Amino acid sequence: MTSARQPRLPRGFHYLLTGVTVTLTGSQVTVLALPLTAIGLLGAGPFESGVLLACSRAPYLVCGPIAGVVVDRLPHRPLLIAANTVMALTLATVPLAALTGHLAMGLLYAVAVVVGTASVLADVAYLSCVPTVVAPSQLVRAQSRLELGHSVAMALGPPLAGWLIGAFSAPTALLADTASFVVAAAVLPFVVMNPVEPAIAPETTVPAPTPSGPRRGFIGSVLAEAVEGALFVLKVAPLRAATLSTGTFIFCYNAYTAVFLLYLTKRLGFSAGVVGMVLAVGAAGAMAGALVARPLARLLGLGRVLVVAVLVSAAGALVTPFFGAPGWTAVAAVAVSQFVLWAGQQVYNVHQVPLRYTLAPPSLHGRVNASIRTMVWGLAPLGALLGGIGGAWFGTRATLLLSGVLSALATVWIVRSPLWTVRTAQLTPEPAAPAAERDRPTLDAVPTADADET
User: Fold this and answer.
1) How far is residue 157 from each of residues 27, 145, 180, 319, 430, measured CA to CA in Å?
2) Burial group, residue 6, by CB count within 10 angstroms (0-12, 13-18, 19+)
3) Phi, psi (deg, nearest 5) at residue 208
4) Which of 84, 126, 189 is nearest to 365 (CA)?
5) What is the torsional sign of CA 97, 262, 380, 309?
6) How far apart are CA 254 and CA 404, in angstroms?
7) Contact in structure between 279 and 334 (CB atoms under 8 Å)
């Protein structure tokens, strides 16, 4: 009944979704092709692989807060076009260097840093675009579509990477990602972006930014606005819990990822094609997770579905290191591992991302997204470095086992927060309340039925 009255997601969102899916597909090629370039052509070991991954994640820690201020101050479309152009041109230098005989680890580190920096700006801008393109009541549905697009990209990217690497070379495969950024920039002019109203009065508010005067200056003003976004995330209990949970998982997952490809190629003897195949199975798991995320939340409630999703991902990660001998049994085990791991991650992502749109006012969306990205992905290079060191000292298998076990600890933040008590499928807007009442936590407000839930 309700679904008949629900407006369709606007055309502009589908253009945005197309651009995001295409770039994610290309990025999945880079995820496989860049480290295999280092491993196959330059002889990189566990430590070098960890440093390469850390270089791609470090910009989130350094540039994240500034990116949020930039996204809140400037129009999203030109920012996204510029970021996609920079990433396209930078990645193109790797096959050029391989062709001219100038390929080196230093160049790969530099490419990872530059692309990672542009990715920070693009990620924050894309996230902040969503509430300007769809209505507040459509945010979870839109996020589900985006996660489904992510899953499709994961399904297409690794096999494409495996084929390109096998047919040409790992550096040449990066040209697919270059092309994806060009396509994403081309569709952005067709995305209509409009201002939106706040979806919900948060349980904790932060003061409006004070206009910057001559004494504060540009740098002081930027830093003050960046701090405002970070304080909002830290003061609002549900956002703080979700951010710390995500950060814990990402830290452990990047330690895992730092040695994952080495384990598959060196210990299990997988070719690039087989690696692409098992990662594509993981993409099918991600697709399944995106599809079942909302029904699971209606069954379990928001708090429990977040916890279950993390535990499922951790269990999936632990399957791979239990198989240490080459053969088709190991191929099947890694495929199952990736399917379960990514199914859990996508269920989690579908529900944790809309929390920030529901709880934060639109004027803070860029800085809130950037603050969360900084806190979460700022831990990623540390995890990657620790994973690389662990792989060099204790071996890749032990590192995979330990990081998989520790990733389950991400659930502690959710269980000890107000999110654990939420039995509805999502946080939803509530009627305006007197100022005195707004000072009280209102996480368990009676939900407004989502279009596809009745």
Assistant:
1) 8, 18, 11, 23, 41
2) middle
3) -65, 145
4) 126
5) positive
6) 10
7) no
Question: What is the H or E stretch that residue 452 is in?
Answer: none
Helix (H, G, I), strand (E, B) or coil at 256: helix
CA distance 141 to 345: 17
Rounded CA-CA distance 403/256 in Å is 6
Phi-psi region of 301 (alpha: psi -120 to 50; beta: other; left: phi over 0): left
Tabulate helix, strand, coil % of the chain (nearest 5): 80, 0, 20
Give the type of residue at 90: T
Report the distance separating Cα 382 and Cα 248, nearest Å.
11
Q: Give 24-85 as a DSSP string.
A: HHHHHHHHHHHHHHHHHHH---HHHHHHHHHHHHHHHHHHHHHHHHHHHHS-HHHHHHHHHH
Q: Which residue do the tokens 């510029």 mark?
A: 82
Single pTM value for the model? 0.65
Query: Quick one: tokens of 400?
Result: 């995979």
The residue type of 114 is: V
Give the span between the Cα atoms of 133 and 61, in whole angstroms. 28
275 neighbors 170 (Cβ within 8 angstroms)? no
CA distance 274 to 225: 47
Hey, what are 137's tokens?
A: 């009541």
Walk along the chain (454 residues) and give the pLDDT tens digit of each residue: 444 455 688 788 888 888 888 998 888 888 888 988 888 888 887 788 878 878 887 787 777 777 777 887 788 888 899 999 999 999 999 999 988 888 999 999 999 999 989 988 888 888 778 888 877 777 777 877 887 787 788 778 777 887 888 888 888 999 999 999 999 999 988 887 765 443 344 444 444 444 444 445 556 676 777 777 778 888 888 889 999 999 999 999 999 988 898 888 888 888 878 887 888 888 788 888 888 888 898 899 888 999 999 999 999 999 999 887 778 888 999 999 999 999 999 899 888 888 877 888 877 777 887 788 778 877 877 888 888 888 889 888 999 999 999 999 999 999 999 989 888 766 664 443 443 343 333 333 323 333 333 2
